[in-house]
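go over this:
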Amino acid sequence: MEEIVEDLAYLSTDEVGCIVEVVGQSEAIWGMQRVRRGMDITRLLPDIPRRKDTNTGALDFERMASIRRFTARTVNDISVPVTVDQLSGQQTFRVSSFPHIAGMLVLSASTLMVTSSNAAVAEALFGLQPRGLPMTDLVPGFDKMLNLLVEEDEIQLREGMVIPEHSFRRARAMLALREGKADAAAVFLRPSGVPARHRDGSEIMVDVQMRVVKSETLGPEFGDSVIQEESEFNFHSSEIVYALWVTYSRAMHAVNHGIGPISPLVSRPGTPPNSIPLQPGPGTSVTDFRSDSESDDSRVAFDSQLRADVPSQRTVPETDTVPATKPEHKKSIDDFVILEDMGAGAYGQVKLARPRHSPSSPKVVIKYVTKRRILVDTWTRDRRLGTVPLEIHVLDYLRRDGFRHPNIVEMSGFFEDDVNYYIEMVPHGLPGMDLFDYIELRVNMDEDECRKIFVQVAGAVEFLHAKAKVVHRDIKDENVILDGEGNIKLIDFGSAAYIKNGPFDVFVGTIGTSRPSPLSVRRSIPAFTQC
């Protein structure tokens, strides 16, 4: 069970809906000095209903109680989803706002209709139950964005394919340019998610990540009036569906939307100590984390955690055309000459390479991480890096000042295409050798040599746990690389995570295997995953 971060404000009004008193976190919801005594409540909650059978402007409490889900209008003219409840017997309203909301929608691949959703999350975000609605009712233009990604980017919507948030942001910007919208330049240069529609018609900004999955259904579908015996549900059918992870962050989606930031308040910090630490990693205070402008993380409302991907701000004049700029070269695997294969694993391959157009540059080790093999819960979002696998986030964190260690592999950069992420790493040894092969060659290792290797591995693990607050979860001989002088590097952070309070009760790492070897008996021992 995790705390749900929630901002609450209580608005007391007179008979005609003018503000009498405000108590609570009104600044976090509406912004500085937005709420004043005597202000009409509809300036704060534009869709609050009034009674139609009177000319006094009295509020319609019955209709308000049946709706409950509205949007608040901030000082910067931004719509924020809220829940409004009247306190019993009083003209005081409890306004609840979640700084972060995230949940799942499942769409039919053929019709783009919502077939299921997280009910609580959908109501809090969109103000309604979306099941049976076309996705375009929730995110206008979703079908056009998806078609653009499929046709122009040649994305194949096959099982396991993941389309991250930044792809939908880019598709939205491209559509705005193509359709000649007045704000196309601003959308292109200052992306802030994709526009969604609340129940009351207001626009809210969200981010969408999509995964193509195969869904299994038990038995045939029948009408509600038909009662079937349990024995009739005796077969499975499967279909391809689109699983959408929809996220909303009040601070994040206001950065480049509306006029300036939503307010100087970034809500209350989330739960941490009993949760996954704040990005970019543990050991960072909330103040330090907010000020370093490198990453963002807060607790997600209801059932998960949102790692907020707040884009860096740029001061760009809003014009009708995009300024002509020289396109930046996008690094690709074609920029390298592959020299040799160095290994393969569950997520991809590792190769030795050199820059194609700079033969004198140092060689690099490139790890291929296949996108379709990345588990959903190992994607993370960062304002500077974008949407990346957790492995890249951890390696980027471990190359920051104060978090480098001589016995831990160093990432020099990363890039991606539609199929893979590519992690560039500094080679160790050339030729280097993993500890598994080294032990097979050095069957008579003396105690001093064993001690030297063990001390370095232990030192790297101790640094990860005590200083970096990272758990590797796949410590094994094949993930220890030696150079010609006995110096080691701990590699392969594909199973790594930031430390949280345990116990770690899910197996992560390498299951014991049988590999022909004089020492194959030790291969039956699984890699350490809990330390």
The two ends are 23 Å apart (CA to CA).
